[in-house]
């Protein structure tokens, strides 16, 4: 990863938990000692305040010349399918004044949600492409990327999280942690992205946020605690209690646009106090300054608690959990406040680039508009005006009409037009600065390419691209449309790194591969709609893998005499599983001496890896397997590369059958 950040926000190990339990026991004894001695109590409090003030001073240092960066947030909204991401984004845009009216997903009113701009998205009620927008909230600028929930479009989430500084993980108050929630969580951990969890759909029948928080802790292994408490659930939801400020909020007006604060009702006061104590304890476990206050049994102020939560969130040791119902217009404004209070600005995220002039030596990127330009193209999209390239500017600034260096192609290119995206709408700008997310027209490049102003030759590292899991054959119904068909495939493979196109020499068919059946169906439909080409497709073929589950020995001798020079090669050793079932086949030579010539060892490795492409169960590639040579034999005249290659193939076949082979699903 190009981001060198702290470890992912996970629950402590069992040893750490035992230590913390012991520490809490000691702290209770210490509190009794401290409270019984006023002088000691005063000393501890004095030291605690000094530590707290020192930490806050260092955390809040501001470079006044780059003030705009400190009031900026770059966030992504990610979740499992149908958790309410796009509905949430629609409310955010409405409350921040970016749109004048709220429209719902599926386009039932003939308009549809702002961030679902494709006809297919509005018809199916799903997000297919990530969409970027920006808004202002309380003098802060927020760049937002709304991402799809289906695993078929996982690359959209991957490239969004690669360039964002923070994220909102949306969960359903009924469904809780689901399959794609796990995938999104892994992606956030891969890029070290601090996140807020938002439990949505509190209005649904069966909604209960507390089991969801338990699942976040147990299934995602995250240190999480509630920041809010709902006053009622399902159709009885009245408002939300802020556990930091200890005040209740209700959302009035036709669309809940006005937030009114009032005293916490008596019926929930006891539970709110318990949940606030739980929040303080969870944060104190990972924040030293708050821990010191906790030790002396001193109640932190709202500002102190807020600062501790921010530190713990930015260091990836804590996940604040907020809640509401976007559809019923409750809790969204408080979530926006949480984005400003707890997620990082661009200067608080450590990014690493590679200096190509120094042999790809890593260096830390300085998020400043005064530094030389360094930007990453993270998404491509065709438009009526040509290729639209989404760009995250890490340092420096970019101006319309200037020449920039396309590092990967090593050529200068002119910037004809810069725009800021609001879903499918564009706003022309003349200059973009460090920290911003913009789009360019007229730039030919690929996803993951880097750009500089030419004064430095550096590159951001590329993002993780998963392997395709499903394939199907495709061809146009009319041969006269081959040209349009080829253009469509070329465009889609440029836009989407997980969409691959190949050709099967045996069947003479074009094969498209992707992340699932829905993924491929959407592209077949887009070829028809956007290029007017109707296609015939074959049955989907799942890209299974095979692996082994135990160690197995092999001893195979290949011997053939046909007059003249014969063929002879003997290989002895074993195969064993590697640490991960997805590891590529490995080869290891453990032989002592040169019983077999080194040139023949290369032939043995080649034979084994060729045979590993076709497993014994489904003829899919074998992964997670290591082929170890321990002995063998050769003949002065009859041994050859071909003989040992054949011996290795057959030895592998022989051993795999004894090693308990299994089929791996995507």
TrEMBL record:
Keyword Chloroplast set for record: yes
Residues annotated as domain Tr-type G: 70-347
Source superkingdom: Eukaryota
Primary localisation category: plastid
UniProt entry keywords in alphabetical sequence: Chloroplast, Elongation factor, GTP-binding, Nucleotide-binding, Plastid, Protein biosynthesis
GO BP terms in the entry: mitochondrial translational elongation
Gene3D superfamilies, per the entry: 3.30.230.10, Elongation Factor G (Translational Gtpase), domain 3, P-loop containing nucleotide triphosphate hydrolases, Translation factors
Gene Ontology terms, MF aspect: GTP binding; GTPase activity; translation elongation factor activity
Subcellular location: Plastid, Chloroplast
GO CC entries: chloroplast; mitochondrion
Pfam families: EFG_III, EFG_IV, GTP_EFTU, GTP_EFTU_D2
Family: Belongs to the TRAFAC class translation factor GTPase superfamily. Classic translation factor GTPase family. EF-G/EF-2 subfamily.
Stated name of the protein: Elongation factor G 1
Organism: Hanusia phi
